[in-house]
Structure formats: C-alpha cells, structure tokens
Specification:
Length: 381
C-alpha cells in the first residue's frame, strides 16, 4: 500500500516538474524571441532603493544603477539613520558620477517594517509618475529600466517584477543560490499557470504612482514583512495584472554559514506560510528529490530515477538557460538534494511564528503582519 502511495506522490511531483520545465521554456522563448515592445515614449522613472548597513557588493549594486541606458530617471537611496556606515561609501560613489540624478535621503520611521517606512518617505520625495523599487543588493544591466518599463506598458499590467539569480562566496551561500535558481524561481514561473495572479519580489517592483496612491501609499502595509508581495497583491486587486520583465537581475547572498542560511530560508518559509497558507501547504509536491529518495527506499527504482532526472533537467534549464546561473548546469545531478533541505525548512516553518530579520527576532501574525519584534519589546520594558 505504501509503495502505491509513493508512486502516486511521484506522479504528482513529476507532473509539477513537467509544468515547471514548460513554464521555464515558455519564459525563455518569449524573453529571447518575443520580448515586450518598448512604448512609443519612455516615461521618466524614480528608482527607490532602501539601504540598511554596508553589505558586501552594495557599492557594485548601486553603481549599476548609475549607468542605466535610459533617457530620464532619478535614483533615491534611503537610510533610516544618518550614522549608517554605508552612507560615506555611497556618498563617495555618487560624487564619482556627477551626471547621474542620484541622492541620499535620511528617512526616520517608526514603522514595524522600517524598510516600508523608508520607502514611504522616498516615494514622497520622488519626482516621477513611474516608480521602481528594488533591494539594496540588486545589480542590474544597462537596459534594465527599458525592459521593465516595456513590460509595464503592456495592456492591463499594473506591476512588474523580475526573476533573479544569486551570487555568494561561502559554500552555504552557494547552496542557497542554487536553490533560488532551481526551485524558487521556477515555482514563480509556474504560479501564473495555476491561477496565482499576484506575485512580486524585492528584486524589482515597477508600478505607477497613481496606483500606489490609490492603495494609501506604502504606509498601508508598513506592518507586513512581505511588503513586496503585499504591494503586488493590492495593485492586482485594483483590476490590474502582474507581469515578469524579460530580464533577470542579480543579488548577493551575504549569509556566511549554514545557520544563517537556515534562518534566512525559515524566514522566507514562515512569511509564505502566513501570506499564502494554501499554496504553502502544497509545497511538498514540488520537492521531487524527497519523493525520489522515498521511492528508492521503497524499491520503486524506476520512479526514483525518473524523478531525479526530471528534477535535475528542470533545475538545470531554469537555472542556466533562464537565469544565467551556471552552477545549475554544472551541478545538475545534485539539484534534487536541495529538496531535502527545503522539506526540512518547510516542516520547521509549521513549528513557530517567529523569524530572524536583520539581527532581531520578529513574531508574525495573520497574513504576514509583524505583531512583535525584539526592538519594540526593548522599548516596552
């Protein structure tokens, strides 16, 4: 009986891997051969980049935004504190690019999610009607804005996000980067195929100021941990749709060890669990590596081999062809091992409501609201 149940699970997992591969191939073909056409006139854009601390590759990430091939844009870099160690570094960088319309802003905020509080202040200082938000460590190509704005100009689109690949310097970080490229990103491409209409990542959110104002500004979700998801979801609720730009971006994982990677992944998992509990509950169906090992243990060698090969092939294509993450190609046979780690994170995510974020512990409530954090607790004692 158990053998048959494992075969049924293998069939579901194989179906998902097939769908993920098809979604990845579809995105690859569209981005390569039928990209979104640019609008007749490129609108001016304000890029809002919240920064907290001097992370590795921060200077390189910001520098990539100063060399964009776009007619008119401004870059607003927001900090919570005037003594942030990254300010002197970025101030020196901006002085090296006097032609760029870029400036540093200090935004004091009492929001539970300080990042959203900074974005709220930056949005009030921005001059243009099209806004782009991305995380501090996001690195982009010169044609980034053109690609993103082209997607926003398509009929019905209200918010645009970008797929991303990660770089890292430690073994633990490289393993996490492999999981992002071969698991998280393919799952994002499958989501629209199964009816998920709202999606958005901190890698990029491009939208119109008018839609943000209709939502009440960033202050409307300054106590949510998944502010990127909340923004995309609420713009979709206005009758618009979310879309992927034809260009991936690059992030840098500063997690130095396995404990940090575990905490990072557990925070993501609990965030998804609270934001989209139904989808989170079904995530084991995507972990083909787990079902391959289980079927192998049960003697279903053929099913195990088929799952291992399907998972490796899907991950290699999505990671390398779609995102340009070359380790996904070189380490293709090892990709299913990520599923074992991801399953452990998934199980642990059900066993608590707290997460580590920027060196402090936060407690999550319904829909991903931050109901308590260590900093707030200290103020109350």
């Amino acid at each position: 009986m158990i053998g048959w149940l494992l075969l049924a699970a293998a069939a579901v997992a194989l179906l998902y891997q097939s769908a993920a591969l098809a979604a990845s191939v579809s995105f690859f073909l569209r981005a390569r051969f039928a990209p979104a056409p640019p609008p007749a006139e490129l609108p001016p854009v304000s890029i809002l980049k919240p920064v907290y601390g001097l992370d590795p590759q921060l200077e390189e990430a910001v520098a990539s935004h100063l060399r964009l091939d776009y007619p008119e844009y401004e870059l607003l870099i927001g900090f919570q504190r005037a003594d942030d160690p990254a300010i002197p570094v970025l101030d020196r960088l901006l002085k090296q690019h006097p032609q760029a319309q870029a400036r540093i802003e200090i935004i004091e905020t009492g929001a539970m999610n300080a990042k959203t509080g900074v974005l709220d202040g930056l949005s009030r200082k921005a001059r243009h009607g099209v806004l782009v938000v991305n995380d501090a460590d996001i690195m982009v190509r010169p044609d980034y804005l053109k690609k993103v704005v082209a997607s926003l100009s398509q009929p019905g689109v209200g918010v645009v996000t970008c797929l991303y690949r990660a770089r890292a310097s430690s073994l633990a970080g490289c393993f996490e980067a492999l999981g992002i490229a071969t698991d998280f990103m393919p799952s994002a491409l499958v989501a629209p195929w199964v009816g998920v209409r709202e999606f958005g990542f901190g890698s990029t959110l491009c939208f119109r100021r008018a839609d943000l104002d209709a939502l009440g500004g960033f202050a409307a979700f300054d106590d949510f941990i998944a502010d990127d998801y909340q923004l995309a979801s609420r713009i979709v609720s206005l009758g618009k749709r979310a879309a992927f730009a034809d260009i991936p971006v690059v992030t840098y994982l500063a997690d130095p060890d396995w404990r940090s990677v575990w905490r990072h992944q557990l925070r993501w998992a609990r965030t998804i669990r609270h934001s989209r509990p139904g989808g989170f509950a079904g995530m084991p169906a995507t972990h083909a590596g787990v079902w391959a090992v289980a079927n192998l243990a049960a003697g279903n060698v053929g099913a195990a081999a088929a799952l291992w090969l399907a998972r490796s092939a899907m991950g290699a294509f999505a990671g390398f062809a779609v995102l340009g993450h070359w380790p996904a190609l070189l380490a293709a046979p090892l990709i299913p091992l990520w599923d074992l780690f991801a399953s452990a994170v998934w199980a642990a995510a059900w066993c608590g409501n707290t997460a580590w974020w920027r060196g402090r512990r936060i407690r999550l409530g319904a829909n991903g609201r931050i109901v308590e954090n260590h900093r707030a607790a200290e103020k109350n004692t």
